[in-house]
Amino acid sequence: MMKLFLSLTLLMLLFSPLPSAAQAAHPVITPDNAAQVVALAEVRGTSDGLDWPLWVVAFNADGTRLAVGNDNNEVVLFSVSDSPPYLTEERVLRGHRGPVYSLAFHPDGQRLASGGSDRSIIVWDMATGEIVQTLTTSPSGTVFGLAYTPDRAQLWCATSTGLGWVSGERCAHLGQTREWIYSVTFSSNGALMAYGDTTIRNTETNQELIIPTRRSWSDSYRSSRSKVVFSADGGVLLNSGSQQYTVFHHLDDLINPVTAGDSLLALSPDGRLAAGRGLVITDTHTGKRVFATQISSGSSIEGLLEDPHDAAFSPDGRLIVTANQDGTLRIWGVPSR
């Protein structure tokens, strides 16, 4: 009798369906399946549910949290899952006196830096939601971009008065220039830094890499900003701006950049895909679209093709999040099977 019971138990284990969580997992988005991407969900990115524009989104390193900066002077934190509702509001961080334009998680995920139009940088404790430190910019300027060095040693800031790093209680700028710098980013190994109109520097030698494509953003509508970002594998650098075209710099072939005609603001972890607008996905090797949302005239989702203010791939490459002017976060992915 005992043998029969054990045999039946073994059969049940062998032929039982996998847990629902495993069934719900979305595949990694690749050039081969990108045409299957759909809008999975829509979430409000403001605490009061109103239509405050969303300016910036950032995942932490393991993809379990998403931070959103909005026009209501807030940073809204969400926990992230691979199944509906995908984003669940955890906490709202209040301390800024103006719209929040920039976010950067510390590499260990325990702190988050935010900056914006109030010309300050706030460092938050992720465990408590409390303010750890409030920093000023010198010279004073709007904070458009933030980035931690991969070795966790330093926080850099891109502002309307230049580029600098945090020293003491302020972000001290390099040199005497007062150039608008919208974005700053580091390669995953920390060997390269990129900022502004695609200036790339070797962080050990401080030498600038010579590349054939440089653009000035002085003619751009400044709220749209520009963005530079390295892929997680460090092989591709994206240079883009809202309502502008995009340039991909492959670090193994810098003299032959690839150009795409859309404003693309996010890179997949392997650097193969870029995403933007609402929603367009492009192959970074060819500059050609592999997916574009099809909107019929008069559709209730006609506004989806408006340019988002920011976008990000999840660190595992399974989801894309876009931050929109109407206060919504849209989550995109390939449907699970």
Structural class: mainly beta
CATH H level: which superfamily? YVTN repeat-like/Quinoprotein amine dehydrogenase
**Rg (CA only):** 21 Å
How much of the residues is beta strand, in percent? 35-45%
Mean pLDDT: 84
CATH topology term: Methylamine Dehydrogenase, Chain H
Distance between the termini: 39 Å
Instruction: Give a count of the beta strands, DSSP E runs of length 2 or more.
Output: 28
- Count of helical segments? 2
CATH architecture: 7 Propeller
Helical percentage: under 10%
> What is the total number of structural domains?
1
| Strand order in the sheet with the most strands | 6-7-8-9-13-12-11-10
Q: What is the H-and-E element order?
A: HHEEEEEEEEEEEEEEEEEEEEEEEEEEEE
Biggest β-sheet strands, sense, barrel: 8 strands, mixed
The poorly predicted ranges are: 1-23, 216-224, 296-304
Query: Per the principal axes of the C-alpha atoms, what is the gross shape?
Result: globular
CATH class: Mainly Beta
